[in-house]
Each structure stands twice: as structure tokens, then as C-alpha cells.
Amino acid sequence: MRVGQVLRETKETKIEVVLELDGTGQHEVSTPLPFLTHMVEQLARHGLFDLTVRATGDVEIDGHHTTEDLGITLGQAFAKALGDRQGIRRYGWAVLPMDEARVACTLDLSGRPFFVWEVPMPKAKLGTFDTELAEVFFEGFARGAQCNLHVVKERGDNLHHIIEITFKAFAKALEAATRVDPRVMGVPSTKGTLTI
Predict the structure, then answer these.
(1) What topology is assigned to 3-178 in CATH?
(2) For residues 6 and 54, what is the distance between their CA atoms, to the nearest angstrom?
(3) Is the pTM of this model over 0.85?
(4) Which partner from 78, 80, 85, 193 sits 20 to 30 angstroms from 20, CA to CA?
(5) Which long-range contacts (CB under 8 A, 24 or more apart) does 58-62 make?
(6) Cα 196 to the chain's mean position, in Å?
(7) Are 15 and 1 in contact (CB under 8 A)?
(8) Buried b (16+ CB within 10 A) or exposed e, 56-67
(9) How buried is 49 (Cβ within 10 angstroms: 0-12 exposed, 13-18 middle, 19+ buried)?
(10) Contact 46, 171 (CB under 8 A)
(11) Cα–Cα distance for residue pair 77/70, rounded to 1 Å
(12) Rounded distance, CA 192 to CA 5, Å?
């Protein structure tokens, strides 16, 4: 079983993540930001990851710390579950639509963190969630998972649709990249390692 469990506790947040890569999409997600909870549920459901998340944080200030720390912790859980990354496909990509919105997500589980965000959106709120926090979440994930992650909005106007399809495209790309391919011998790199 490829499982990652991480507890991150600071003066600002407490985040606990338990992840099973080879799951069926079962999830139990609790955060103080309902929209963020809904998005992380999308990640589990559409990536077919079994996921438990318990997150608390200083949302009386704003949602930034909780969102960023959840992204980092979730990324670290994926890194732990992947171990030495032997046999994985390594690369994943998805371009998905949701009504008028379409987003492309590409990633490389390279062991080297890099993040590109080309998702222009006005600053606004979806419930209690600031739209600019979507970028914060994914940047935190790229650092935590030590992966190269690019997210590009191809079209879209509805902010809910744009962010939701971003999470769904990310889930599908991550599901593809983390799969074990029996044809892959060892680590899929000429360097012989995908870790720093």
C-alpha cells in the first residue's frame, strides 16, 4: 500500500492528512473553509485517492495560512506515499471543461519544485474563500510534493467553474502521474533518482 501520513502543526494551523494513492476516491475532509473543503473532496473523488483531511487554522484573520499549509501538507503526503517513485509514470496532464470554463493542468513528479500559474481571475470571494487562495494552495502543493506543476486557464468567466475545474484537472493529472506502470523499470529518469 502506498500511504502517506503527515501532521503539520504551527502557531497558525494544525493540518493532518492521511492519503492512500491506490484508493477509490473515499474521503473525509474537514476544513474551516467550506469551499476549500469542497475542492479537496474533488481532488480525492476524481483522482481516486482515499483521503482524510483534518484542518484547523486562524481563519478569523483570513484563509491564507490554512489554505497554504493544507497545500504543503497534502503535497508532503503525496511525496511520502510515492516513496522513491519507482515504477510510476511520473508525468500527468489533463484538459477538462466545466460549462464555459476549460483548464489545462500538467505536472512532473520530478523531485524538483517549480510552479507556473496562468489563471487570471479577479479578486473575489466564493463564500468565505478568496479566489486568489487557489494559487496559494497549488504553489504550496508543488513545494510539498517536490513536483513541477503548471496550471493554465484556456477559457472561462465563472469563478466557481474556473477554480473547480482546476482542481478536477489537477486530480486527473495527478492520478495519471502517480500510477504504477509495469513497463517502467525502476525510476523513470536517466539520473536514476526523482528526489533531491
Answers:
(1) Ribosomal Protein S5; domain 2 (3.30.230)
(2) 11
(3) yes
(4) 193
(5) 58/12, 58/13, 59/32, 59/33, 59/128, 62/130
(6) 20
(7) no
(8) ebebeeebbbbb
(9) buried
(10) yes
(11) 10
(12) 26
Backbone angles phi, psi at 67, to 5 degrees: -65, -45
Tell me the CA end-to-end span of the chain in Å, nearest whole number: 23
Query: Which amino acid does the sequence have at 32?
Result: P
pLDDT in 10s for each residue of the chain, 196 residues: 899 999 999 999 999 999 999 999 999 999 999 999 999 999 999 999 999 999 999 999 899 999 999 999 999 999 999 998 888 999 999 999 999 999 999 999 988 999 999 999 999 999 999 999 999 999 999 999 999 999 999 999 999 999 999 999 999 999 999 999 888 776 666 566 666 6
